[in-house]
Amino acid sequence: MTGFGAAMLGVLMIAAFLLAGGGLHLILHRKDKRKGALMLIAAAVMIGNVLVWSL
Fold this sequence. Notes:
Elements: H1 4-28, H2 33-54
Helix pairs in contact: 1-2
């Protein structure tokens, strides 16, 4: 994949890692476990989408 599609997959991966990091931060610092878990699930879905689209 080249061009715009590859750039969007890269942006999606960066967003997924940031989302996972934020979710872990919320869970580990005992601020809001429910939102942290939802953020981790959203990051996993985003990573799964990238895997599907890159095949």
